[in-house]
TrEMBL record:
Keywords: Endoplasmic reticulum, Glycoprotein, GPI-anchor biosynthesis, Membrane, Transmembrane, Transmembrane helix. The keyword Endoplasmic reticulum applies. Pathway: Glycolipid biosynthesis; glycosylphosphatidylinositol-anchor biosynthesis. This is Phosphatidylinositol glycan anchor biosynthesis, class S. It is found in: Endoplasmic reticulum membrane. One of its GO terms (biological process) is GPI anchor biosynthetic process. It comes from the Eukaryota. The chain crosses the membrane at residues 12-32, 526-548. InterPro entries: PtdIno-glycan_biosynth_class_S. It is a multi-pass membrane protein. Belongs to the PIGS family. One of its GO terms (cellular component) is GPI-anchor transamidase complex.
Length: 563
């Protein structure tokens, strides 16, 4: 009987040890493996490098001396190339470096013939037909004081392309070495570059998602707040508001006007974003405020302080494209009814706005089109009115340029800027916008990707699937390429890679699988697993404790017998 009791006890101990071994060696690893959160590999070290953003913008400038601007002795030392670096520390994590590579040479015979045109505009066109400057570059032609291309009060002419005419006086070159002449030209060429290419103010404003703008730079803050943020696409909506169809029947050739005035601009802006255009006519659409009648002018007026209340009631009727997440630019043409016509918009000085229109930052613009001249004493209502689309589109085109970030700031003194062509934007204006958009896209993408990395590092329960890891890696690679292309001066490629980076980073950041509420936090895991594992673990633990206790008892008995 004693032998059987000992054998049964040993068999129970072996069973308890076997069960414990299976639970510890197989059950726990299997449970850990099947319940762990899958987290794909992310390029964390590369993301941390991007968090400390060091941007270099390289611009190629070619300075061409026309006949009579350099002496024969100075002419022997050209062509030559000079490089200048200008560094700015924006904040502790962001630094900017501007590299200007300037190549000096003398004009060719064909360029001299082009500079002999009667006007600066004709000379600009002739120079463009000779050779087209690459995107992001600039050519400055230095002409003598005796040239008749520029008026007397103008020293710099900025054309429609990527060329500028710079006049220097005869006293500048006489008795000077070439080095002295270049040192005199350098600040003036840099001023031309800041007008036609990029300036530190514009680039700093483009970093608004990443750094805090200085309160003293009010102009750049206002410009950055007016324009829409960079986006892969934009929706443009033209709306005709007819508050009283009984007074007038309006006809507008919006399709033809878009093709004539808007599409040329959008075709040139194609590298920046995709655009879609639609139009609509809204009947019985009223403004949100009641205009006041000014008896001195026999007209109704809208003051500047009441314009903010105009948009909200009208916006409720505009509708939206639910299938698209792109920003919407709204352009409204409001034709007052016969009882409130003419209607004029006043500025903050109580003066009539010449365009009779206003725009709202990052929203769109509204133009009031008066038709009171059509209401004769014998007019039969409703009056048929054909809207002058050239007048309307001239206003909307100017507002569209502002809302898309095409700067129209006043040029420096003694600068003459050529008026807009039929394309609606000059080549150098497009380059200037591409520089800003590239930097803005890089800043936004780096902020998005670093925020995502910090979020995933802080919350360990979020699953990182392979698709998110692929998007993050793609964003990091595109960012590195965009920064490298900016450093090389390849503006078009830099813009393309920056667009790919911002798309990939936003797809990764807003992926639905990253929602933390889809996964159990640690306290909920314990609440679920304890009732499941505790009843099974208690007998095993008690058996193990019993085995340990018996082993200690036998060891004490052996020591007692040995003594």
């Amino acid at each position: 009987m004693l032998f059987k009791t000992v054998n049964l006890r040993r068999r129970g101990q072996l069973a308890a040890l076997s069960i414990a071994a299976v639970v510890i060696l197989i059950g726990v690893p299997l449970w850990w493996r099947t319940t762990e959160t899958y987290r794909a590999w992310l390029p964390v070290s590369q993301i941390q490098e991007l968090a400390n953003l060091q941007l270099q913008l390289s611009a190629d400038v070619e300075v061409v001396f026309a006949r009579g601007t350099v002496t024969p002795e100075q002419q022997k030392k050209v062509p030559l190339t000079l490089t200048q670096d200008d560094e700015h520390v924006v904040d502790e994590d962001t630094a900017l470096r501007y590299r200007y590579e300037t190549r000096y040479r003398t004009a060719t015979i064909m360029e001299e013939d082009a500079l002999n045109q009667p006007t600066a505009a004709e000379a600009d066109l002739s120079l463009h037909t000779l050779s087209e400057s690459p995107c992001g570059s600039l050519v400055v032609y230095v002409i003598p004081e005796s040239s008749s291309l520029l008026p007397e009060d103008v020293d710099v002419y900025v054309g429609q392309r990527r060329t500028a005419l710079l006049r220097i006086g005869a006293q500048t070159r006489v008795g000077r070495t070439l080095e002295q002449l270049l040192s005199h030209l350098e600040p003036r060429v840099k001023q031309v570059l800041q007008v036609m290419s990029f300036s530190h103010t514009d680039i700093t404003a483009a970093l608004s998602d990443r750094v805090r703008l200085s309160p003293g730079n009010k102009e750049s803050i206002a410009d950055s707040m007016r324009a829409f943020k960079s986006s892969p696409g934009y929706e443009i909506t033209f709306s005709l508001l007819n508050p009283d169809p009984k007074s007038h029947r309006l006809h507008w050739d919006i399709e033809g006007a878009v093709q004539t005035y808007i599409q040329p601009l959008l075709r040139k802006l194609a590298p920046l974003a995709n655009f879609s255009i639609d139009s609509q006519t809204l009947y019985y659409a009223m403004l949100g405020v009641n205009p006041r009648f000014d008896s001195s002018r026999s007209a109704y007026t809208l003051n500047s302080d009441s314009l903010a209340h105009v948009i909200n009631p009208v916006e409720a009727r505009l509708g939206s494209n639910a299938a698209s997440s792109n920003p919407v630019l709204n352009f409204l043409l409001y034709v007052p009814d016969a009882h409130h016509s003419p209607l004029h918009i006043n500025d903050h000085k109580k003066q009539e706005v010449p365009s009779n229109a206003f725009h709202s930052p990052r929203w769109g613009g509204i133009m009031v089109y008066n038709v009171n001249d059509f209401y004769g004493p014998e007019a039969a209502f409703p009056v048929d009115i054909n809207i002058d689309m050239a007048k309307v589109m001239g206003v909307f085109l100017a507002q569209l340029r502002l809302l898309l970030g095409v700067q129209s700031s006043a040029p420096p003194p003694r600068f003459l800027v050529a008026p807009c062509s039929s394309a609606g934007i000059a080549d150098w204006e497009l380059d200037r916008l591409m520089w800003s958009r590239s930097v803005e896209n890089i800043a936004t993408a780096t902020t998005t990707i670093t925020s995502l990395a910090q979020l995933l590092d802080q919350i360990g329960n979020i699953v990182i699937n392979d698709n998110i890891a692929q998007q993050v890696s793609s964003a990091v690679t595109s960012l590195q390429l965009a920064v490298a292309e900016l450093e090389s001066g390849n503006l078009r490629f830099a813009l393309q890679y920056s667009k790919e980076a911002i798309l990939a980073s936003e797809r990764a950041f807003f992926d639905p699988s990253l929602l933390h509420l889809l996964y159990f936090p640690d306290d909920q895991k314990f609440a679920i697993y304890i009732p499941l594992f505790l009843p099974m673990c208690v007998p095993i633990l008690l058996s193990l404790l019993k085995i340990v206790s018996d082993a200690r008892q036998r060891r004490r008995e052996k020591h007692a017998k040995a003594d």
